């Protein structure tokens, strides 16, 4: 079974992009759940629902890319680009903890995005 998963995640750029984007989607889903249970009335509820929907959609893109649907490549790149801009907007915060968390997240998202646009990743989607 592990050989099948390993073969499906080859080459390295493809596997790296899918893995990091999958982790990002899980983080977004967790943030959505945290927002839903934060008891901040309507704002927390609407933000939580939005994050849950986005996280599930992003996870769907990862699954479609794992299954090698060629048209999912553009959505994989777009999801990482959107994540990079969203997380990058938090770099202007005055809170040092939030700044370092955003910067660390941005590094992983940038690696996922760069791995997604590499020619080897696009070729892997055509297998």
Name some characteristics of this structure.
127 residues, mainly alpha, 6 helices, 82% helix, globular
Molecular structure report:
The structure is a single chain. This protein has helices at 2-8, 12-36, 41-66, 72-88, 96-117, 119-125. It has 127 residues and is mainly alpha-helical. The chain has one domain. Helix 3 (41-66) runs antiparallel to helix 4 (72-88) and helix 4 runs antiparallel to helix 5. It has six helices and no strands. It is globular.
How many domain regions? 1
Broad shape: globular
Roughly how much helix do the residues carry, as a percent range? over 70%
Uncertain regions spanning at least 5 consecutive residues: none
Secondary-structure-derived class = mainly alpha
Mean pLDDT: 86
Radius of gyration: 16 Å
User: Order of helices and strands, N to C?
Assistant: HHHHHH
Provide the β-strand percentage band.
under 5%
Largest sheet: none
Distance, first to last CA: 19 Å
Count of alpha/pi helices = 6
What is the β-strand count?
A: 0
């Amino acid at each position: 079974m592990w050989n099948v998963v390993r073969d499906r995640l080859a080459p390295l750029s493809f596997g790296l992009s899918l893995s990091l984007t999958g982790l990002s989607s899980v983080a977004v889903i967790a943030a959505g759940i945290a927002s839903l249970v934060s008891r901040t009335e309507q704002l927390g509820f609407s933000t939580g629902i939005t994050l849950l929907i986005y996280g599930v959609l992003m996870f769907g893109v990862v699954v479609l890319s794992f299954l090698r649907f060629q048209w999912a490549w553009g959505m994989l790149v777009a999801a990482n680009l959107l994540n990079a801009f969203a997380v990058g907007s938090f770099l202007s915060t005055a809170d040092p903890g939030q700044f370092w968390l955003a910067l660390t997240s941005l590094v992983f998202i940038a690696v996922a995005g760069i791995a997604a646009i590499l020619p080897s990743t696009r070729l892997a989607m055509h297998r």
